[in-house]
Design goal:
It is a single chain. With 450 residues, the chain is of the alpha/beta class. The protein is built from 14 helices and eight strands. The strands form three sheets. It has a four-stranded mixed sheet with strand order 1-2-3-4, sandwiched between helices. Strands 5-6 form a two-stranded antiparallel sheet. The chain has a two-stranded antiparallel ribbon with strand order 7-8. Strand 1 (49-51), helix 3 and strand 2 form a beta-alpha-beta unit. Helix 1 crosses helix 3 (61-74). The two termini are 34 Å apart.
Length: 450
């Protein structure tokens, strides 16, 4: 990683040249051709902040440099562009992400308007919407962009692209003129690099510890499902078995094998989400198989029992109030539905904690991805409102450390070069709102942004 002094020298040489070229190539006063996004993307591959010369009144070169230093020092894939007010905005974020080709969070200010979008692997769309809404009332461009970056660095996942530290493809500089300077700052640069590496190692160690704790619970789930398969009184060649039954059985077996493979290859807590998704798929296949064998109507797909996903798919939603919490509707299995109706406590999944055995929703942040695989989409936040796990998942640091559990997809990590191979849906919703549709009416339900 380049040291702040080295970055500052590089920018002090490059920015005046760019400004001079802008003056020489400018047309009549007030006239400005649309910024070529390929040029913006080229600059962002070399550093996290780009300010168009025609928008230099929005953010000075010194403020842009300080903002870039902050992002690079944090080693996070956050990109910021400041463009003139007459820049066309239709599909701007989507096109900029495609041109840059690097997974990350992109924030763009056009005139006095601001919006952002991100790959799902670094930040969920809801988190981006909340982040954009939180900075709309900032008093000036410098304050807004710094607020955005400060919040983004606390939430975004992944690391900065390698091109920021290897010089990228930016304008050339006479290296011989920097040799003496480089010798002076070498010691400081080595110290900064060591600090970044030490912080990264600590974060990786924390993730490994969280995964080890989570692995115990997931292995219990996998074992329980395997025992369920062993107890299953079904043979594909038995009398009355048809192709649909055999397909259900094969899907259950495949889900079991997939869960084991995924757990063996898991490296981060958020990797567990795919494991519990596979187990949920397998249990639903067994529910379908049972209905076919008993000649009952096929069940609708429902989430597993909230109290313990090992109970299998839920049969209904029932009102439940956690101790000291608020009432909410939760999906329950038939057995727990009966217990609740009789005024008894449900059979709750407990896990080991420093305070002894506790329900999983009171056990700690690492269980978010585990629960997210079972209760994906928008269901999980409502289920966990008021619980310890729900409160932890709402903190800024949670997404960076564990993934949102229910909000992050797979694919490229932050900072990876993916080119145009990314889910454009992560940047979707901007046609008719946001940067898309040619207007600035978006900001989701928060009323701000583009």
């Amino acid at each position: 990683m380049r040291t702040p002094l080295f970055r500052g020298l590089m920018r002090s040489l490059i920015v005046p040249v760019a400004a001079a070229l802008a003056v020489l190539t400018a047309g009549a006063p007030g006239a400005h051709a649309a910024t070529d996004l390929s040029k913006v993307a080229e600059a962002l591959r070399d550093g996290p902040v780009y300010v168009d010369p025609a928008a230099s009144d929005q953010l000075s070169s010194a403020d842009a440099e300080a903002l870039a230093d902050k992002i690079e020092d944090a080693d996070k894939p956050v990109f910021v562009a400041v463009l003139p007010a007459d820049q066309p905005t239709r599909n701007l974020l989507l096109n900029l992400r495609t041109e840059t080709g690097i997974t990350g969070l992109y924030g763009v200010r056009v005139g006095d308007r601001f919006d952002a979008a991100a790959d799902a692997s670094v930040m969920s769309r809801q988190s981006v919407d909340n982040l954009v809404a939180s900075v709309q009332s900032a008093g000036d461009p410098k304050a807004q962009l710094n607020d955005f970056v400060d919040s983004a660095l606390r939430n975004v996942r992944g690391t900065a692209p390698a091109s920021w530290s290897d010089g990228g493809g930016g304008p050339g500089v006479d290296v011989s003129g920097l040799i003496a300077f480089g010798a002076v700052v070498a010691a400081g640069g080595a110290g900064a690099y060591a600090l970044v590496r030490r912080n990264r190692r600590r974060h990786e160690a924390e993730q490994r510890a969280a995964l080890d704790k989570l692995r115990v619970v997931v292995d219990e789930d996998i074992t329980a499902f395997g025992e369920e398969l062993d107890r299953l009184d079904f043979h594909p060649a038995e009398p009355g078995a048809d192709d649909a039954m055999r397909a259900d059985y094969e899907r259950a077996l495949d889900s079991y094998d997939q869960a084991k493979r995924l757990m063996d290859s898991a490296r981060k807590p958020e990797d567990v989400k795919a494991v519990t998704q596979a187990l949920d798929d397998g249990r639903f296949s067994l529910t379908q198989l049972a209905a076919r064998r008993e000649r009952r109507p096929l069940p609708q797909r429902r989430p597993p029992c909230f109290f313990d996903p090992r109970h299998g798919p839920s049969v209904a939603d029932e009102t439940w109030t956690p101790p000291g919490g608020t009432s909410r509707e939760v999906p329950v299995c038939a057995a727990d539905r009966t217990r609740l109706s009789e005024g008894r406590d449900p059979v709750v999944r407990e896990v080991d904690t420093d305070q002894g055995r506790r329900p999983y929703w009171e056990a700690g942040p690492a269980y978010g991805p585990w629960a997210g695989g079972y209760f994906g989409g928008g269901l999980l936040p409502g289920l966990l409102v008021g619980t310890l796990l729900g409160s932890l998942m709402a903190t800024p640091s949670y997404a960076a450390d564990y993934g949102a559990g229910y909000g992050y997809g797979g694919g490229y990590e932050g900072g990876d070069v993916s080119g145009a191979d990314f889910d454009s849906g992560d940047f979707g919703g901007f046609d008719g709102g946001g940067f898309g549709g040619g207007d600035f009416g978006g900001g989701g339900d928060f009323g701000g942004g583009f």
